[in-house]
UniProtKB/TrEMBL annotation:
Protein name as it appears in the record: Methylenetetrahydrofolate reductase
Molecular function in Gene Ontology: oxidoreductase activity
Family annotation (InterPro entries): FAD-linked_oxidoreductase-like
Superkingdom of origin organism: Bacteria
Keyword flag Oxidoreductase: yes
Keywords linked to the UniProt accession: Oxidoreductase
Organism encoding this protein: Roseovarius albus
Length: 308
């Protein structure tokens, strides 16, 4: 009997499901202290090694932030707390926060942001000032992420252009070239793959080589997503949600990021050097909902704590 000749399938021949699986490897997810409290054990939901960002909303005591970081780190996950410059009073406060995170949760990575408040509480008004402070370098942080805006940001560029955002990216690229810390752009979420791809390609063309961790809104009620999208200044891709809302057959169905992820994954499979390297989930419909959706749609499964 003749032997069957099985050919090894190359990456270009990967199925859509395999493409999404590859694209979602090492995804990260965002929590807040109050949402983290609803999760009994993150090991029951997330793959081992998942990076967990901890969002710092104005008014949240630093004690709650550090306690959340300590708890999630104790469960075995690398934590990346937000440092929103505009709510940090001064350099001494920044140094104190860093010391608390390191002392209690062994934190060595951070997301640096301007922060979503109009008036700074003190000396800082941008993530660039946080980088310039030297405090993260002094503390030996191994990874520093900064914000990316695939659809611009009208808080930064009120005229609708991307001039200030682009200038900031060029500054951050120079900083990245001169630091030992690994850097990445963690982006605002968007709902349409085509402008995301165009934006990412434009970075490469402009000499911005910082890897991109693309923000993706997790599954949620359509009304919830539209509310968050408007509040967060999501740009043209908001039309994807608005169009869906006009279809009564879809209005009551939860939004899932299946289409945008499939398109991005297919582009990555066809262009392995594409600068989007990771997916970062905003679990706007709940952490458990997002984590379970990721497992069901190509992500790695969690290993339950009590599994034999």
């Amino acid at each position: 009997m003749a032997l069957l000749n099985f050919k090894k399938r190359d990456k270009a021949a990967a199925t859509p499901n395999e493409q999404v699986h590859a694209f979602m490897q090492d995804y990260s997810i965002e929590v807040m202290p109050r949402t983290a409290e609803k999760v009994e054990d993150f090991r029951d939901l997330l793959p081992a090694g998942t990076r967990v960002y901890i969002a710092h909303i104005e008014g949240t005591p630093i004690e709650d932030m550090v306690a959340t970081a300590k708890r999630i780190a104790a469960e075995g996950f690398p934590v990346m707390p937000h440092f929103p410059g505009r709510i940090i009073k001064d350099q001494a406060t920044l140094a104190d926060w860093i010391a608390r995170y390191q002392g209690e949760a062994n934190v060595n990575q951070a997301l640096l942001l301007a922060g979503g408040v109009d008036k700074p509480h003190g000396d800082f008004h941008s993530s660039m000032q946080l980088l310039e402070s030297g405090e993260f370098d002094k503390a030996g942080f191994k990874r520093l992420h900064v914000a990316g805006h695939p659809e611009g940001n009208k808080d930064i560029d009120p005229d609708g252009s991307t001039k200030n955002v682009d200038d900031a990216l060029r500054w951050k690229q120079k900083f990245s070239d001169n630091t030992d810390a690994e850097m990445a752009l963690a982006t605002q979420f968007a709902f349409d793959a085509k402008p995301i791809i165009e934006w990412a390609n434009s970075l490469s063309e402009a000499g911005i080589t910082i890897p991109v961790h693309i923000g993706i809104a997790g599954p949620a009620k359509l009304q919830t997503l539209i509310k968050f999208a408007i509040a967060c200044g999501v740009g043209p891709s908001l039309k994807v949600l608005q169009k869906r809302a006009m279809d009564v057959t879809k209005l009551l169905l939860p939004y899932e990021p299946t289409e945008v992820l499939a398109e991005l994954a297919a582009h990555k499979a066809a262009n392995p050097d594409f600068n989007i390297t990771n997916v970062h989930f905003f679990p706007l419909g709940g952490i458990k909902t997002n984590a379970n959706w990721a497992i069901e749609n190509g992500g790695e499964a969690a290993k339950p704590v009590n599994a034999s």
